[in-house]
Design goal:
45% helix, alpha+beta, single chain, five-stranded antiparallel sheet, three-stranded antiparallel sheet
Length: 338
Amino acid sequence: MLSERRLEVLRAIVQDYVGTEEPVGSKALTERHSLGVSPATVRNDMAALEDEGFIAQPHTSAGRIPTDKGYRLFVDKLADIKPMTAPERRAIQSFLDSAVDLDDVVGRTVRLLAQLTRQVAVVQYPSLTRSTVRHVELLSMSPARVMLVLITDTGRVEQRMIDCPAPFGETSVADLRARLNSRISGRRFADVPQLVQDLPDSFEQEDRGTVAVVLSTLLETVVEETEERLMIGGTANLARYGQDFPLMIRPVLEALEEQVVLLRLLGEVTDPRMAVRIGHENAYEGLNSTSVVSVGYGSGGEAVAKLGVVGPTRMDYPGTMGAVRAVARYVGQILAES
């Protein structure tokens, strides 16, 4: 276990290195921080931290930089999440409140996260597998054509045009709409197939074929849309951190193009807690020079998707974690109110 003083020295090294981009020496630490000890004592503490693998000497200068292990300890023990200021919170809420639909919410969230953190922002769309049905709308477009509109509790809207095998009148359309909503409104998508399987049998013989086609389209929509979707933004921000990716920017960019890699980085949606993966904790080798800060978002205290940022290990962890948490909270509120 490190002493409190050495923990403070490590905290100071991380803060200075993130702020200055330069290896940190003992003299600079004692000048910038009230550590209450001499430069010689700080040098001894730095030597101990280096022996333990928390800091390293990148070249022959006297300065040290944090290692992945050092950042990990900083995040776990030393970093207080930086809260957003009142003006920042108002700006976030105002920007997200102006969204007109789910795509706009996700797009605005990506831009906002990238701007606040100056990192690469990644936002996962709410998955239908973790969503519930808010409403099913059926609209008669012609005697033998119906539009199906599926609305989820997260604001996702899917619509399909259906050609009916026989004329299907307005009264029948209204009847099917009412019965569908009575069975599946407020229910999870995973439960929908079982809830509607016997529905055709409750209609007159001449309407059963059309009811079966509508239900088949509904179930196909659920299956098609279980594929996870992501939106990414702020990739150009990586250009600001050239020295943090020596000869390694290309694999980072390649990794960011792989949706499967990004989904794995964000982690399981069922775990809504904030997660910080640092450097070599990322399983994908191309991202060993990056850190990922992610958290679940949703309505009613249940996560339906995740969002986060990818940036160099030399990042402002308290500020980044605060921004990610604040944005996730506002997105969840928007989904709950939509």
